[in-house]
Amino acid sequence: MTETITETGGAVNEAGDGATPVLEIEDLHVTFPGRGKSPDVRAVRGVSYGVRRGEILGIVGESGSGKSVSSMAAMGLLPDSARITGSIRLHGEELLGLDDKAMSARRGSRIAMVFQDPLSGLTPVYTVGDQIAEAIRVHNPKMAKEEVVQRAVELLELVGIPNARQRYRAFPHEFSGGMRQRVMIAIAIANDPDVIICDEPTTALDVTIQAQILEVLKTAQRETGAAIVMITHDLGVVAGFVDRVLVMYAGRPVEVGPVDEVYYRTRMPYTMGLLGSVPRLDLEEKVPLVPIKGNPPSLSALPPGCPFAPRCPIARDACREAEPELVPVGADGHTAACLRSAEIGEQGWTATDVYPVPEVAEAPAAALPRAERETVLQVEDLVKHHPLMKGAVFKRRVGTVYAVDGVSFDIVEGETLGLVGESGCGKSSTLMEILSLDRPQSGRVSLLGRTSGAMGARERFSVRRDVQVVFQDPMSSLDPRMLVFDIIAEPLRTHRYPGKKLRARVEELLDLVGLDPSHASRYPTEFSGGQRQRIGIARALALEPKLLVLDEPVSALDVSIQAGVINLLDELKARLGLSYLFVAHDLSVVRHIADRVAVMYLGKIVEIGEVDALFGAPSHPYTQALLSAIPIPDPEKERSRTHIVLEGDLPSPANPPSGCRFRPRCPKFLTLTEEEQHACVETSPQLEPTEQDDQAAACHYAEKRVVV
Amino acid sequence: MSMSTERAAAPEAGGQRAPEARATGRWGSVLLQLLRTPRVVFGLAVIAVMTVMAWVGPMISPWEFGERDYANFLQPPSPEHWWGTDNTGRDVFVATMVGLQKSIIIGLLVAVLSTFVAAIVGAFAGYFLGVTDRVLMWITDLMLVLPSFLILAILYPILRNQGWMVFVGLLAAFLWMVTAKMVRGMTISLKEREYVLAARFMGVPAWKIIFRHIIPNMSSLLIVDATINVSSAIIVETSLSYFGFGVQPPDVSLGSLISVGARQAVTHPWTFLFCTGLLVLLVLAVNLIGDGLRDALDPQSKRRS
């Protein structure tokens, strides 16, 4: 079964030694022995792949699928307690069983790694230049000092750090996350490795930065000709970036092949589910997402047979008996581990054929035109500035962080407003200002006609009923010391819900969000992320609010689970006539769920409008760049797109540029004549309606452009 | 209803959660880990034996506390007086057991009381910040800079007629400050947790949030701290009593016994060795338990197997 993967392969860019793979992994098993009585965790069970020079292999899978562990094994970075069997060969040389010293000679020089978290990847006490120099010197001890510095500066230039010679002496904390990730890449390619393993290199970054980093990785690959193993959960990144893809589930590859084959001629229901559960940025029509029911199996207690069988809608009895092997199912070494793959191919089934698609009803209020519906939330010119203080005893103000700087929007009954923007743009501050119900520093927030800060204590308490919130992190949004029953009952008890009806109401709520009412007597730690998020939603719905504020409710969840939660939110909105204020950085999710979208940049809304109009033809250069930076899980489309890659990082909100805040990064600004630029530098643009509808952009030279 | 997408998946299929998160719950697993650590088991056993001894010992001994054997002054251990007698003919075994009783009671009470005060002060200061924080922390800092030993030594003789409970209160009053500072720091970070925000946004009053969400989520810190406070309370109590400021005759504590025995430790070692040995053993046992608890509750300090 392994030959099929290694013999044939995707595009080999360099013919040189394309015949033998640079890195070859065969039948790799990794087991972590359980402590005490707990059973062993079989993290990787039989992974085989090979990558050639210049090839990019994508490994996709949900968290816990063993994708990172298999690569850590290749790097020899697993703890000693792990039991590793199989074979890992670099240029035909067996790596497994080498001691740490022998591995160290190869790590960094022939096989390198880029980690997910750029914040903890660099030592804070050394300059970035010294850290790159160290990576060079460790493998070239004879190199002269000046040469090493010269090489480090070259590397910094290569990964796109401006003023490389000066920045050589900068410390990691002076760099933004994106810049640090560039430095990590510079370290990885310092010794011209043959293989670079990238473990979710862009997951912790914003989309515009992600686009930059992917460009840098492509440059790095061009320069070194290395093979890249790209581990990610983002199917969009995979579509545009890799040659071949390996889909992992429960520690095993379930489908392998060239990216087009896997995306367009999917033969394994799990891959189908993954592709079907991603909200698409490029589809106007609102179709419900395809959720995969259930959760991934525990790696310490796997069911016999196909590990996906319990979640698979087309599983047969035979699936539960023996685990299927990877068998060839199509051209170019496309293999899948599914008993029914031949059938799927013959019938030409797609995700919607295999998975039961939930129906989503239309909200009754949506039938009315927007102007006739009741306004639930109105925000006018909201301002939140944090003072920057200095000094220990006598504090003096040394500056201001313009977290939210004049934000206006409104939400009507039954409507979803998506508030999007990169991290640090003031989305969360806006939410907290609205939810606090305090008088804002300036501007006005009114909820159902009642103005924040102008209410008495009792009125304020009663307004709390109508506005509830669902948080991002399902791990910290539920008190770990309370039973699920008490968690959901907390808002009810607070608002004096009759005690006798309490249990019935909690059970009703659990049922509403798709959980078993008998789960009320468990603790939150016993649930998976998706289930906890459902508990959070149940708590928020307990008081029958009119407006639900959703702060990145699905960004911490795996895609297949995310789809279920999004569908639930869609359905609840339709059934209960809720309005949502949906804050997210994932624009695909927003496109799927929102009716209107507001795009924030550095504390201001730069563009607002109806979702299809705005996504279809954004008119602010920032919106255009943001949308263009998002990879689409469709290989052909993705390859044919040209991304607008923004320069630089988000400026500090403590020191925003004059005039238009987007000016320093604006691609449009560069094309303007000096006179035209004058307006951008001098005056801050206001939200001006563009042409018809209610789409408005804060740009002096707004111009609609199709980018998706 | 079409949203029963996850109903089929009972939590037992919940991915690769840590096995500790199973039905046993957090405290169950902590207890299991504690019982697997030999030093904790040793500490617990020592404390249990000492507690039983302290209360049962005087009952099975033929001598009463306060009873004097005028035929035997300063006699070495014998079948009649198991641990010998002291200068006034008291049975050393009975006196030591009664002293041990007092030391254990005072240690426990002081620890519980001071941790309780610390939790309240720290949590309120950290939750409200602003003026509340400044006032409470000002008081805390003031208490910290006062030389507690000196003040206790001066105050207690004035209050001695009120009995030893006042002594407990005084001791607790000088032990809570460092914990309160720690609690304040933890509260500030817990306050930003989303479940606390959620409670705030649903209109739960602040004091309820503190007692319902904040203090229970610090319980591990508080328990560890209380345990460590037990040993420091015992030590402060004994040292005060040693200097004659603490427990006053006719009451005895380990401290006052040590102080009497210390003068004749070389000539009549039984009046000194037993009470000192018990004190060392008691504090050691409490510290072993505290150490083990901290390791069990803090995932960071768990050693890799």
Automatic annotation (TrEMBL), chain B:
Pfam families: BPD_transp_1, OppC_N
Organism: Nocardiopsis composta
UniProt-annotated stretches for the region Disordered: 1-21
Spans through the membrane: 40-60, 104-128, 135-158, 164-183, 270-290
Matching PROSITE patterns: ABC_TM1 (PS50928)
Keywords annotated in UniProt: Cell inner membrane, Cell membrane, Membrane, Peptide transport, Protein transport, Transmembrane, Transmembrane helix, Transport
Membrane topology designation: Multi-pass membrane protein
Protein name: Oligopeptide transport system permease protein OppC
Signal peptide: none
Domain ABC transmembrane type-1: 104-290
Subcellular location: Cell inner membrane; Cell membrane
Single Gene Ontology BP annotation: peptide transport
Family of this protein: Belongs to the binding-protein-dependent transport system permease family. OppBC subfamily.
Any single GO CC term annotated in Swiss-Prot or TrEMBL for this entry: plasma membrane
